[in-house]
Amino acid sequence: MRVNTGPEVAVQIDGVAFVGRTGEPLIDVINRAQIELAQVCYHPQLGPIQTCDTCAVEINGVVGRACGTPVTAGLTVRTQTQAARLAQRDAYDRIVSNHDLYCTVCDNNNGNCTVHNTLSLLGVDHPTRPFQPKGLAQDHSNAFYRYDPDQCILCGRCVEACQNVQVNETLSINWEAEQPRVQWDGGKPIGESSCVSCGHCITVCPCNALMEKSMLGEAGLLTALPKPVFEAAIDLVKGVEHSSGLQLIMNVSDVEAETRSASIQKTKTVCTYCGVGCSFEIWTKDRHILKVEPGPGPANGISTCVKGKFGWEYVNSGDRLTTPLIRENGRFREASWDEALDLIAWRLGEIKGQHGPDALAFIASSKATNEEAYLVQKFARQVIGTNNVDNCSRYCQSPATQGLMRTVGYGGDSGTIHDIENARLVITVGSNTAESHPVLATRVKRAHKLGRTQLVVVDIREHELARRADTFLRPRPGTDFVWLSALSRLILDNGWADDAFLQTRVNGLEEFRASVDAFTLAYAEAETGLAAAEIEALARQIVAAGQDKTKGGVCILWAMGVTQQCGGSETSTAISNLLLITGNYGRTGTGAYPLRGHNNVQGASDMGAMPDQVSGYQKVADPLTVQTHEREWGVTLRPERGLDNTQMIDAAIAGNLKALWLTGEEMSLTDANANHLEKGYEALEFMVVQDLYFTHTARYADVVLPAASALEKEGTFTSTERRVQRLYEAMPPLKGTRPDWQIYTAVAERMGQSWGYTHPAEIMAEIARVTPIMAGVSYDRLQGFDSLCWPVAEDGTDTPLLYVDRFNFPDGKARLYPAQYQPRQHTPDAEFDLHLNSGRMLEHFHEGNMTFRVAGLAASVPDTFVEISPELAAERQITNGQWVRLISPNGAVKVQAHITGRVSGHEVYVPMNARHAEDAVNRLTGNNRDTVTNTPAYKDTAVRLEVLPEGGPNPLPKGNSRYGHPTPQTGVEVERKWARPDYVFPGGLLPMLGDSLNARSDRLGGDD
């Protein structure tokens, strides 16, 4: 989060010499020295805000703010002089005059309240400025949190977090008002603003002004009192305060807070939504989820999105499965675990005996842990003897993996989010990053807003990053390969390539040069619809961004808009080729970033849940791999490739696949051509579904097993950064449910393999033994918030940034790969005249099985809909809320229309989340696939639209954040506070304004 600072210099603090870095805030040196100093508004992940003045110290004999003073050589600092202490206490006195202290009965009194703790630190006993109610009402209009102006101290932390960390730019403070307050969209109720409920503001609030509704009346011993009693208790406390002083009251509140710790459990976990890998503590009281508290997570720090912060109600949903189900005579009945597991073992063994091992197939879950994905493929290969195993990366990221394997050797992100932040130029292709990977997008938005990064967005739909971009390009659907190849040819033809990099680190230049020969600017313009001048300008921008090797270069981020095409592998290859010829690998601020969609879709592939590879992307036919697994598992791996997800369905319909065990995936709604898929399920002789709920897919099962959620087990997830992180059990499994790893272990036992695992740590130890890229991964090295980015050497050394010295090929050189253009197969025609696009929404995840069970998320987006452009709406006379029917050659859905400029012309967009299975967008998609990986070409679908007579309300309710109007600012804009006539720096003179502004400039990257 913080900009690199200058060289080390000596600073004297309270008579002792310490080392600081030129330009860093003085308060950081003081904190590293573990010198106690009040600091209410300062937060290490926000930097200097300079609103509270409690960090006042003497600096070279003048009282000033430690947070707003940049370090220079020879500073002499004294933190406890009479003048400094007077200023600190005076500043705090002003704070509590804005804050209605009732710590003994406050839900936020959990030992981490900054206002409370600072009072104790400073030893304040009697405030000199009495609290005066502000006359402003509490705001409860948001589904997840409330704002209480009478508790707000106007520190501005929330504003800084919103403006410059999340960069949603909703919050501000009206400093010029007679009674300043935090505002949403300049004065709207929270529920009518652009607030996306990311929770940054609540996380950094130093008191109880912003608080989760799930905490209210739940956290403390006395906070569940009825409101009249609660208010009387506050008055009683305040009455005692005048005679006893604050310290006695604080002592009582400390005892009460300590008592809470016996009932409140704080457990580190990892988010179960997208692939960013946010980690945080989750606070629980029995099974009640009080709050999510981020902070030290390596990927996210203080950041969350609405789902990670508030989207956990699904864990306690009333429709959780709690007993196994067995189908008999077309109906399901409850069964014991032993009966269900015995039946599964018997039927799998019977089918294997009758039809051979390849009549069975297994699908691992991208929501389950690494250890569980590993056991799925181990079960398939060791217990059954088949390579028919896959995971849901087949539906999204397999083409990206293929493109990277071809060119650089590893199928994962080149670096971390930190490396993306350090880029001079970020290009996103076919990725709605702000909604699909929100926290990663905040880092891109921040770097862009603060002037450190240029942003180019290439997409057919105008989403948030497209609106923010320096350049937004809208090519025709499915033509990304063409403009990428044209860029490469143009750069090579003009001598703009990084020749030194190509000569020393890359093979295959001449073959690649020949492969892009046909991609002239004229051809690219005709095929993509982008002007030749736009492509040439982008080429110059890419070359310029990578010229200074000390300041980062180019990062390209892409997602399903690229991979879910017939040429997904080829386009992913073209992205990597472009980065290679411009030398944009192996340095921070460079590289390829295929953004993984699910929390553990990277891990599911890493663990070998693939038809031709075991863990660590080792080929099943590789002699050394065979030898290693023969020693570990006692079986010989079969060398032939098994069936992938899409092939399994075809094989079932053809009568060759008889049994399928599906773990934690709603495939009947997320695979393409859902009608075709359901025929495949109906053709199976035996199907097992393992999930949290009785899903739509479970309807086709013969046995349904109730699984445990991520909060109810231990294990590891691997994020899009290749970052392996532990999750801990926050609550015991719901009665009647079991973790996936226990279920597979129990069936393996019944089929003659005594795995004997008693804890996931034992599984990870085995993974490390057979997986070179995970050799040094262990639970001991993943304690708490510690993490490792694979490949990890045996000694525990990990690799956050790949390709610094060599690429993952025997000679250490990358390979330019001559990819081929694969045009769309289903362009719109006279009958099906519209192009269908689909994707995720911020509020929901994938098909919505988890998020529709979260009331606040479901209220924000109650169901699916179709986005229609204003021009198409005018052409077809469609109004907001009108029902329409979308029809493709594969099926039809009935949805409501939402008219928006996010789509243009004859493009329509349908979110993947649907409350009802019959409305799922994949009723429309077909069987055309990526030519290399068989990933469905979801984005290559043409439809027609029928306007129906019925109408209704707009499918996006009035309170949805997309209707809001953000108020962008540089941050808190504390200078406006200082300009108020009633502001005087407490206890001394205001430090030189230039110094304060210089410190802020350094923090914001102003050196550029």
Summarize the structure.
With 1008 residues, this protein is an alpha/beta fold. It has 33 helices and 37 strands.
Describe the overall structure:
- It contains 33 helices and 37 strands.
- With 1008 residues, it is an alpha/beta fold.
- The strands form 10 sheets. It has a 7-stranded mixed beta sheet, sandwiched between helices. A 6-stranded mixed β-barrel has the order 32-36-33-35-34-37. Strands 2-1-5-3-4 form a 5-stranded mixed beta sheet, sandwiched between helices.
- Helix 6 crosses helix 7.
- The parts where pLDDT drops under 50 for at least 5 residues are 988-1008
> First CA to last CA: what distance?
17 Å
Mean pLDDT: 94
Any idea what the radius of gyration is?
A: 29 Å
Compute the number of helices.
33
Largest sheet: 7 strands, mixed
- Share of helix among residues? 25-40%
Helix/strand/pairing category: alpha/beta
Report the principal-axis shape: globular
Number of strands: 37
Q: Which band does the percent of strand residues land in? A: 15-25%
**Cross-sheet strand order for the largest sheet:** 14-13-27-26-25-15-16
Oligomeric state of the chains? single chain
